[in-house]
Amino acid sequence: MPLDTSTYALALLRLDGRRWNELRRVHAQISTQAAADGSSYLEMGNTKVICTVAGPSEGRGPSRGGAGAGSDAKVEVEIGFAGFSGVERKRRGRADKRTAEMAHTLTTSFSSILLTHLYPHSTISLSLHILSQDGSLLAACINAATLALIDAGVPMTDYLVACTAASSPTTSSDEGSADPLLDLNGLEEQELPFLTVGTVGASEKVSVLIMETKVRADRLEGMLAVGVEGCKQMRELLDGVVRDYGKKVV
């Protein structure tokens, strides 16, 4: 069913009641799994993710000296989907292409911001469990992993936060014009071209940029700008979660 945008001109609201630049409700916790070195639980709308971190621990590999000496810690990511997480109940194995792509994106992005040189010959393992899928899944995984790594005490240059942005047909009379939308839900992702952008801290330094759909080049700049602004909002929300947990511990 095509996305109905006929009400946007009247109420200036999206189908879930948000304005174009509003995030969905975000709920997050850290230290949710006592047995893990670090853990987190994150909800972005109806997308729900649990992340656990193990390590840094002694790496699994042949070399402790020789050619492998002085190598940085290795980041490993494993992603699992609950059978009830999506509309279709299907099992996703490790060989699933989309799961492998998400794991690779997480591995490369966190390897660039974690201070892995402090833990030579070690492994930092991230395990993500998807409980519910309703859009912005990669962004939710990145945000949950950031919180879990902070809980584990793994040093990093700054937070890595992510958000999605899309291009929606505008209600104006300008032919070919479009309005950007922030933080997409599942229905919007099915109908609109969108991208996932991840930034480092409160800056505008882009560390992750994934786009799997086609869009006109003149719309891309607006989508990216909205996504970066959304990352700044997400950074403040995650920082608040960490501060609140610190107060409880003290």
From TrEMBL:
<dbReference type="GO" id="GO:0005730">
    <property type="term" value="C:nucleolus"/>
</dbReference>
<protein>
    <recommendedName>
        <fullName>Ribosomal RNA-processing protein 41</fullName>
    </recommendedName>
</protein>
<keyword id="KW-0271">Exosome</keyword>
<dbReference type="InterPro" id="IPR050080">
    <property type="entry name" value="RNase_PH"/>
</dbReference>
<dbReference type="InterPro" id="IPR036345">
    <property type="entry name" value="ExoRNase_PH_dom2_sf"/>
</dbReference>
<dbReference type="GO" id="GO:0016075">
    <property type="term" value="P:rRNA catabolic process"/>
</dbReference>
<keyword id="KW-0689">Ribosomal protein</keyword>
<dbReference type="GO" id="GO:0000176">
    <property type="term" value="C:nuclear exosome (RNase complex)"/>
</dbReference>
<comment type="similarity">
    <text>Belongs to the RNase PH family.</text>
</comment>
<dbReference type="InterPro" id="IPR027408">
    <property type="entry name" value="PNPase/RNase_PH_dom_sf"/>
</dbReference>
<keyword id="KW-0687">Ribonucleoprotein</keyword>
<dbReference type="GO" id="GO:0071028">
    <property type="term" value="P:nuclear mRNA surveillance"/>
</dbReference>
<dbReference type="GO" id="GO:0000177">
    <property type="term" value="C:cytoplasmic exosome (RNase complex)"/>
</dbReference>
<dbReference type="InterPro" id="IPR001247">
    <property type="entry name" value="ExoRNase_PH_dom1"/>
</dbReference>
<dbReference type="GO" id="GO:0071051">
    <property type="term" value="P:poly(A)-dependent snoRNA 3'-end processing"/>
</dbReference>
<keyword id="KW-0963">Cytoplasm</keyword>
<dbReference type="InterPro" id="IPR020568">
    <property type="entry name" value="Ribosomal_Su5_D2-typ_SF"/>
</dbReference>
<comment type="subunit">
    <text>Component of the RNA exosome complex. Specifically part of the catalytically inactive RNA exosome core complex (Exo-9) which may associate with the catalytic subunits RRP6 and DIS3 in cytoplasmic- and nuclear-specific RNA exosome complex forms. Exo-9 is formed by a hexameric base ring of RNase PH domain-containing subunits and a cap ring consisting of CSL4, RRP4 and RRP40.</text>
</comment>
<dbReference type="GO" id="GO:0034475">
    <property type="term" value="P:U4 snRNA 3'-end processing"/>
</dbReference>
<dbReference type="GO" id="GO:0003723">
    <property type="term" value="F:RNA binding"/>
</dbReference>
<dbReference type="Pfam" id="PF01138">
    <property type="entry name" value="RNase_PH"/>
</dbReference>
<dbReference type="GO" id="GO:0005840">
    <property type="term" value="C:ribosome"/>
</dbReference>
<feature type="domain" description="Exoribonuclease phosphorolytic">
    <location>
        <begin position="22"/>
        <end position="155"/>
    </location>
</feature>
